[in-house]
Amino acid sequence: MEEKLDMLKAECKAPPMPSSHSLFANWQQLKEMAEGGMTIGSHTRSHPILAHLSLEQQREELTQSRDFIESKLGTAVSMLAYPVGRTDSFTEQTQALAQECGYRLAFSFMNGINTQLDAQSAYQLKRISVDGNKEVDSLKVQVMELNTKHRA
C-alpha cells in the first residue's frame, strides 16, 4: 500500500501525507481547502439511501447537512454526492428536491463521462471511481476508454 501511495504522490505531485495517516479531513483542513479554491460538497446528514425516505425526511437530510457544513466553513455548499449513488438510491423527486434545496449539481456513483450538462443531467452526474487499489496507469486507460466510447 505504501508503494502505491508513493507512486500516486509522485504522479500527482501531491503533498506528503500527514503523519497521522487520517483518512478524514478535519474542519480546519476543509476550511483551508475551501479557501484554496476546492469545492466542498454535501453527502447528507446521516448517509441514508434517500429513495427510501419520505420527501420531508429527504429535505431534512439535504438541508441540515448543507447548513451544518456552511456554518463550519463559512462558504456556500452547492454540490451534493448522493449516499451510495446507485440509480435506485435516489429518484427524480430526490433530484428535484436537491435543486429546490439550493444544490446546483448532484453526483451519482454511476461510472462514466458526462456528455451534456442540462437541468436534468446536473442532478445525476456520473463520475470515475478511484480507490486505493487503482494503479495510475489503469486509471489513465479507463479514462481513455470512456473518452473513446463517448466520441464513437
From TrEMBL:
CDD domains referenced in this protein's UniProt entry, alphabetically: CE4_NodB_like_5s_6s (cd10918)
UniProt protein name: Polysaccharide deacetylase
GO molecular function terms attached to this record: hydrolase activity, acting on carbon-nitrogen (but not peptide) bonds
Major subcellular location class: secreted
Domain of life of the source: Bacteria
PANTHER family in the cross-refs: POLY-BETA-1,6-N-ACETYL-D-GLUCOSAMINE N-DEACETYLASE, PTHR34216
Domain NodB homology: 1-152
Gene3D superfamilies, alphabetized: Glycoside hydrolase/deacetylase
Keyword list, A-Z: Signal
GO BP: any one term: carbohydrate metabolic process
Protein localization: Secreted
InterPro entries: Glyco_hydro/deAcase_b/a-brl, NODB_dom, Polysacch_Deacetylase
Gene Ontology CC entries for this record: extracellular region
Species the sequence originates in: Agarivorans albus MKT 106
Keyword Signal: yes
